[in-house]
Design brief:
single chain; alpha/beta; four-stranded mixed beta sheet
Length: 134
């Protein structure tokens, strides 16, 4: 296994309402639906994968009638996007219109960004800071 480069990252989260979650991430944040799947039998679940086509990550939201896992986000379950600049007011308004709720994520993140809870309670931080692993 190589320990450098850009392997693709999958972040999976359960959702009570896939349509509401999709609305937040797609209409609110501006991600695209990369894949959608429906449960085909016992033990399977519905899913929607969202992300940006050129990103090295995607967010997989899973749920549906056959999915028994309840979302259980904590205050530390943060999905942080480093924007390297101010958070656009229109983006913040869109996230709220798409079902997001503006919340506090503590003094550090409140100073360096804006935080929203998605319809399942998971937190998205739009950070004004930049990030580099280099």
């Amino acid at each position: 296994m190589t320990t450098s480069g850009s392997p693709h990252v999958r972040i999976a989260r359960p959702s009570r309402d896939l349509a509401a979650a999709e609305r937040f991430w797609v209409e609110g944040l501006g991600l695209r639906v990369l894949h959608r799947g429906a449960a085909g039998g016992p033990g399977e679940h519905d899913l929607v994968m969202v992300g940006w086509p050129d990103a090295v990550w995607h967010l997989e939201l899973v749920g549906g009638d056959q999915f028994a896992v309840e979302p259980s986000p904590t205050a530390e379950d943060l999905f942080v996007l480093y924007l390297a600049g101010p958070v656009d007011d229109e983006l913040a308004d869109r996230l709220e219109r798409a079902g997001g709720t503006r919340v506090s994520a503590g003094p550090y993140w409140d100073r360096w960004g804006v935080t929203f809870a998605d319809p399942d309670g998971y937190r998205l931080v739009l950070s004004t800071r930049a990030w580099s692993n280099g």
